[in-house]
Amino acid sequence: MLPRSIGTLRLDAVDVAKPRGAPVLCLHGLFAGSWVYEGVLPRIAARGYPAAALSFRGHPPASPLPTIGRASVAAYCHDAFEAARELERPIVIGHSMGGLVALLLASRNLVRAAVLVSSAPPRGISVFSRPLLLRMARYLPALLLSRPFVPNAADIDALVLNEVPAGDRASIRKRFIPDSGRVARQIALGVYDVPLRTLRAPLLVVGADRDRFVPLGVARRLSRRYDAPLHIARGHGHFLFGEPGWESELDAILDWIDKLPAPVRGPASAAWTGEHAPVNRARR
After folding, report:
1. Which residue of 94, 142, 201, 219 lies most exposed, with the fewest beta carbons within 10 A?
2. Whose CA is closest to 58, among 38, 34, 36, 24?
3. Distance between CA atoms of 254 and 96, rounded to whole angstroms?
């Protein structure tokens, strides 16, 4: 049975009576929480994988963190490490900032495989686009001074929720919380480097062709850098799992997981250590 808490951290979880694979750990992005995966976890579990979604420190349903503006990517990685250790080296799905955390976990051999969904990139891949720069410039003081911030409704709708039906956006915006200006700055400056040689876990990169927050070009470059397959979610934006038709995109992710070598995809009791994982080959 999957844990529901790890110290002060909270996990939403859906158990499977007879698992056919390792647990899948889901990591959310900035301003969000484990609630992003409310519809996702049961669908993962229905395929035979115990499913859990972590809320990083200071994110709902946990109590707000007054110092969240100064939280770092490393701090969120520590939270994810604690969850990965408790779940005995799971498969991880990370969205947006959670994708970068998932990549960092994979570089430390803490997960069996990683799926990067509209992922924030590591050093050397710029996330900036003209629409993002025009909308995000007003939040520079929060980034520079490590203050909590959350984009306003117009900016969230334009960059993050542009493919969510207009009538559903307000209820989603109400669930967003102020998050770390320091984390946003670290992502923007490419503080974290993840060389190909550090990866021992298989990767799947997922990008969306209507994503205005992390453009599809970022996913293409991640795919090339790590020689990983790229799945393009056609007609989707950044908030994939809240958009109409997300189910078929999740099914494509689960199909990829199903095709992983048996020693990689589990179950957890197999005590996989990474020796049988295919290594992403560098492009010549």
Report:
1. 142
2. 34
3. 18
